[in-house]
Amino acid sequence: MVTNNRNIAMAQKGVLIFLAIMLILNCCGQVNNTFNLMPVPAGLKANTNRVRITNQFRLSIIGPADSRIYADASRFVRRLSNKTGIFLDKQGYIIRKDTNISAQLLVRVERPGRLRLGEDESYSIETGASQVVVTATTDLGAIHALETLLQLVSTDADGYYFPGVLIHDTPRFAWRGLLLDVALHFMPVDVVKRTLDGMATVKMNVLHLHLCNDQGFRVESKIFPRLQELASDGLYYTQEEIRGIVKYASQRGIRVVPEFVVPAHTTAILTAYPEFASVKRNYHLQRYFGVFDPVMDPTNEKLYPFLEKLFGEMSALFPDQYFHIGGDENTGKDWENTPHIKAFMKARGMNSTADLQTYFNRRLLPIIKKCGKTMVGWDEIFQPGLPKEIVIESWRGNESFYNSIKSGHPSVLAYGYYIDLIQPASYHYLNDPIPDSVTLTDDERKLDLGGEATMWSEMVTPVTVDSRIWPRTAAIAERLWSPKAVNDVDDMYRRLDMVSLQLESLGLQHISYKPPLMRQLANSWDTRALEVLVSVLEPLKIYERNEGDTMYNVFSPFTKIADVATPDQKVPRIFNRQVAEFLSKPSPKMEKEISKKLILWKENDAQFKLLLNNSPVLLEAALLSENLSLLAAAGLEAIQFIHDHEKSGSDWLQESLAVVNKAKLQGGRCEIQVVDAIQRLIQRAAD
Amino acid sequence: MVTNNRNIAMAQKGVLIFLAIMLILNCCGQVNNTFNLMPVPAGLKANTNRVRITNQFRLSIIGPADSRIYADASRFVRRLSNKTGIFLDKQGYIIRKDTNISAQLLVRVERPGRLRLGEDESYSIETGASQVVVTATTDLGAIHALETLLQLVSTDADGYYFPGVLIHDTPRFAWRGLLLDVALHFMPVDVVKRTLDGMATVKMNVLHLHLCNDQGFRVESKIFPRLQELASDGLYYTQEEIRGIVKYASQRGIRVVPEFVVPAHTTAILTAYPEFASVKRNYHLQRYFGVFDPVMDPTNEKLYPFLEKLFGEMSALFPDQYFHIGGDENTGKDWENTPHIKAFMKARGMNSTADLQTYFNRRLLPIIKKCGKTMVGWDEIFQPGLPKEIVIESWRGNESFYNSIKSGHPSVLAYGYYIDLIQPASYHYLNDPIPDSVTLTDDERKLDLGGEATMWSEMVTPVTVDSRIWPRTAAIAERLWSPKAVNDVDDMYRRLDMVSLQLESLGLQHISYKPPLMRQLANSWDTRALEVLVSVLEPLKIYERNEGDTMYNVFSPFTKIADVATPDQKVPRIFNRQVAEFLSKPSPKMEKEISKKLILWKENDAQFKLLLNNSPVLLEAALLSENLSLLAAAGLEAIQFIHDHEKSGSDWLQESLAVVNKAKLQGGRCEIQVVDAIQRLIQRAAD
User: Fold this and answer.
1) Distance CA A607, CA B475 (A)
2) FRET label pair with B244: which of B27, B81, B406, B589, CA 20 to 30 Å apart?
3) Contact between residue B470 and residue B419 where contact means Cβ atoms under 8 Å apart
4) What is the value of ipTM here, to two decimals?
5) CB of B425 within 8 A of CB of B450?
């Protein structure tokens, strides 16, 4: 305990010195030169030094760091070698005795970092004439510094170098998380590990694993083996694998927060142990996605010893302080329709099933505490009477988030960071956890822990999941790390493009999964026409994809055009910007750029149709392709009118708007993303 | 034992009936219609039936099969759904009670297959009017049938269907292996699993895991934990992971044969347990690749109890009958230079270190037998006095292979299947285990077990390894499965192209790893110029890559142009064929085709040079790009001469040949693959 207090005191002292330096660096406004850094550091000044990277490069760590920094530093050297092609084999693994104060990269650490909420993660980087020096209170900060350095690597005619910088950096929020749902669609260990690699690159520090739901229970239990035997389809992590994931995360400075949802969303648990259900039914794993009635019976006294044993076993696998119990989306129907539960509620004066759930949560709290953990739940559990020590994760709105803070709960914001909903990075980026409209007292500010991107996995598989997480999550990571004033969307996208490439160098497949899937879709090596079409498509947003005739389930093919289309596509983003620019100030250059694309889209349909012979799976996109072609043709005509300074007739306008309306229809669960821009061209032609 | 004998009798009866049917199908010559099947079945007749694949599709298994077929059939349905985009969610997991004799796909199995050498793997497929019926003696045959069916899926205007076929198929050789070396470069579990997926697709049935070498010991030992603690760099499989790999393989009908090399190539074991070395040294893991002197001391009586315990523990992890003890590349120096070993040899009248190694092997044999295993070793151990029951794997030449067979050893051919040496698929394909020049008696034929592609991992990483294994290994798989008469190289390449796409649908990254690596190399999203250059390059062949200034080791970057270049490139293969065709019969069409490519290559260098600014790692290929440009320019001039029916002057010829010679130089450990063809154009222009 003495050590801890001392560490905290040292950390606080560090933060104070740090803030003073940042003021000197004038870091509290927008940083001028952001290089390709993401997240942008709190304070950065460039200078003219260059520390060249040659095969003589050495890295040395000074000070009593945790062993994780040695693993991470070794990994850093390999990544640097892989990026530059330079044989850095002077150092295989960086080890403690390998101290060399004249190393090209010197990392000074004051004390071992502890992987816990609020730990000091700050660091400084200073490029001298021939040496880069990293200074950090803890190895957790040093790990962030190494990521910054990899993003800084620059080139000139003489080769690779670290550019001259003076950086003082520290995160704005302490909880910068990503929820990975491995329950609805299971994600194998290698997916989890590469996700952790990506998170570390953008300095995220919490992996929230959603480990069970109606579709499966995903962790081996040695006490209750029926969970994995009857309720996982064989898709679960062994305890050894969980320990491996936790270790892998720890080496990257990332905490792992497990979530075991109770009392609803428990069809899987009830499939294995139906005796804990509110209603007697023949329980089977749920194959569809949604909100279902099965729920545990909180009046069953045997439930609590069961949960105590289960959570005792599970929480021991996860060293983190926090333990998430879900608590969301309880329909309450199975409680209301069960006489003994109704009687129980009545006897205790409960007015609603929400009251009963609060009762359940109050029973749960001592169990979680007995495990030595702090309880976290979704904002449904935020009800009057809920003990204040419970952390609330808000998904139902910013309002709900501030209410929970203002009522004294430490809170984490998920709302606005639902990356499964296919919204653009800019939307998430501008979702500030403390917008200007909100005022928090200092004490309330302390309760605002940060936020979490949430990757729910109804509509993703191990093949496509990276493309739904990355690169957009990097924008969320920056929102949670960088100063509030860093909010230039264009600069964010510029850097996101570079970080996206860096992420794929780590093995993330958000870009590279596309060509194989397109070859499979086209049933051919030649996918050009499909690529052109897909480049302007995005999957239906929010929850629309799962509406209509065919309900998706765990056995559905996620190998179709909506799966190869990605959120926040670059081609339409650039095209839409070009059209806006053209409409505000027509220029021959922009006219040519826009026309080139319109011609490509117009002519693509004939090529796309050729694919259909070999590839019936693409038929669902045939109309989409045709509509894109007609739309582009109308756009070209509009450009011609504008070029000629002629006003189109109203017949043409009506016809063209009919084309636009058709082009707004979905096909293959996708939408064309250039409709609005072309519509604007058409309107202008008629003005 | 009774069951086994009965099974063998049944299998033999099955084979006889089978051979009779194949004679009726006239299958012993070249099969006429090979569809896109690889390997080509032993007997195939097409008919006009079409069994359509709709969302009503069902698969049913009849008969007492091993449970593995249910897992494989469930996987089959998911793969079929992923390929066609059809929601086949009527069946999630195929289960035993799910018998429906009117299912669209009916699989009849006579008895559970046992995963052992020589087990019946035959199957038949018959497409009726509305049902496909698979018949197999064992589920192992049925698994092969399902792979054949996936390759048969066809399309027309109405959608997807299984075409009309009558297939009777059985393998030519019983041992159709792939050696995966996970010692020199460790390969994570997911690499092993996707390799198994690929193997199953082309009906290979032995994964030979090379599990230790000088660079590391890759399996957790609970008895000798120093092996993984001191001699693996943390890169090893836990026993749980090994069991997972074995199970995954078994579900695909694949045996796993482990190899633990002794007595040489044991630097890793000696790092952990130096007391077993012949020479007292400070042993460390070897970081370079090659043949080294460290070797166990066969005169140390404590060595044998150690090996008995170690191999007892290891062999228990691998249920297969065979256990490979390596035995290769012992320099013998550490034996010759050690007095007590010399004395030991002299006292026993041994003339050479080979004799001492035979002594060691004779000591080893009872240990391996006590483990219940059959011993396998590389052909160095094939020495006079070696017990005949030991299986020899030949890597030093076909001669050595036939000698080993003729001297009575069951033998497996690896020579000619060294896929790490970057030779074309055609070379491996035409390396028949029993060429026309060799005559084997019936008894000798029984000793010819088959062959193994060998993926040694000096020069590959988990990122690049797929591109060295696939698709070429599919050609070897066909050589080992299909009748000898199936040897049309052009048809092989046609089908290899399709199988290559099928393999990537399984998650193999032999194609898709390239764009990310090129983006990293180019340090840019725009990799067109790099793609054009790489498309005509292959890495240096045989062992040339590791010669010259820089010796590769385990820490080297394998992220360079030689890593993104792949063996047996398609662009040069097609270009070279076109040039041959053009030279034998000039035509305007071919002239145009060839010129188009030459212009592309000529003009590419200017674009490639632009990449260098951002990407010093590409500098090593700058001369290569320039040489390709000059070579293409000379080729275009040659085409012009030929077009004009003019004879070039001898000055031009000399200049052009100088260009050709420069273009033969390596750059970035790669060679241009179109030099010879362009040289022939130049020669023709001067004729």
Assistant:
1) 33
2) B81
3) no
4) 0.94
5) no
